[in-house]
Task: inverse folding
């Protein structure tokens, strides 16, 4: 059981983050924000996969002008990502964005930050102070080097500005390309402030490398109870970020609304096409949003024991196989019947879950 830090609560659109609320999954669009049709299309795909808050880049005036329509049509809260030109943050707030992300490394002087804070205070919009190891203010780097301390002091400077202005709807992030640097920075910040944090490892890389780096860095922090929202940064279709995030959280007991498929690593005892079955089952359950753990085992030797922690499972053989419920043999079937029988059982559990959920309404 993970004991999460009880931080200050902040409202982002219709999503409450911080406190003891669930860890919220975020992503960022890769489209040109001024292309409203394509951006909205991507947001809807992300939402369908499980994204709860989405960030969009605001690089120019065309992007800023598109925010009004995007905010109206988006199924999830939109965060405006602001760099260099603070005036775009003002336009984003007027457009109704649910959160403004500013980067202390390039937002400019104190007056720029004050202008953004005053606007967000007026509109009751939270601000994320997004520290990035690759764009730290020069004075911080000169004093502390490229270190977690430099990240913390940069964050401190801007938090103090916001607090001086009576603004406390703050979220912070301390992203670094090095997971160890990010871990140290987030741990330091967690000891100093009680604001919710957005976790991420920046420039993590491709699907494989990015998943490994993010799982290590974010997994460790989440285990320590740190983090209210997360993004798995990948150089891929952003939908992959949501898939990885859900599985990371699920593996830690922090995300229940998904079907988890576990399978044995295979060995010389394997007597049926386990990999093929696993892929087919994963495809079959991809759009089912309910808690279920399915075990697919390659033989009957360890089947009962290895499937005991799953809700349902199968173990195959060269002539037939067995189906389990909570590690107990439920049925023996021919090999060609294993997959159809498992699919029927999955839908049986899904319908039971739906009926229970409907009765609770």
Result:
């Amino acid at each position: 059981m993970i004991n999460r830090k009880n931080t200050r609560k902040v409202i982002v659109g219709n999503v409450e983050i911080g406190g003891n609320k669930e860890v919220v999954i975020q992503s960022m669009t890769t489209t040109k924000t001024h292309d409203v049709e394509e951006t909205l299309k991507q947001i809807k795909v992300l939402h369908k996969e499980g994204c709860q808050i989405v960030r969009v880049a605001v690089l120019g005036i065309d992007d800023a002008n598109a925010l009004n329509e995007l905010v109206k049509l988006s199924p999830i809260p939109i965060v405006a990502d602001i760099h260099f030109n603070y005036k775009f943050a003002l336009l984003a707030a007027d457009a109704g964005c649910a959160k403004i992300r500013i980067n202390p490394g390039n937002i400019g002087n104190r007056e720029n930050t004050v202008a953004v804070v005053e606007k967000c205070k007026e509109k009751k919009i939270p601000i994320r102070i997004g520290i990035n190891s690759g764009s730290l203010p020069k004075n911080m780097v000169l004093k502390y080097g490229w270190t977690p301390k430099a990240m913390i002091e940069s964050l401190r400077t801007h938090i103090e500005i916001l607090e001086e202005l009576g603004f406390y709807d703050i979220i912070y992030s301390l992203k670094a390309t090095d997971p160890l640097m990010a871990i140290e920075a987030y741990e330091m910040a967690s000891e100093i402030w009680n604001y919710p944090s957005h976790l991420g490892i920046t420039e993590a890389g491709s699907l494989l490398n990015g998943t490994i780096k993010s799982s290590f860095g974010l997994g460790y922090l989440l285990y320590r109870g740190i983090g209210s929202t997360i993004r798995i940064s990948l150089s891929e279709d952003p939908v992959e970020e949501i898939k990885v995030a859900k599985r990371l959280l699920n593996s830690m007991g922090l995300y229940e609304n998904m079907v988890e498929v576990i399978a044995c690593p295979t060995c010389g005892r394997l007597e049926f096409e386990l990999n093929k079955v696993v892929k087919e089952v994963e495809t079959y359950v991809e759009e089912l949003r309910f808690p279920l753990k399915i075990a697919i085992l390659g033989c009957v030797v360890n089947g009962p024991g290895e499937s005991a922690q799953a809700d349902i499972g199968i173990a195959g053989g060269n002539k037939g196989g067995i189906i389990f419920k909570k590690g107990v043999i439920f049925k023996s079937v021919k090999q060609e019947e294993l997959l159809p029988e498992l699919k029927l059982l999955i839908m049986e559990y899904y319908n039971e879950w739906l009926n229970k959920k409907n009765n609770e309404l």
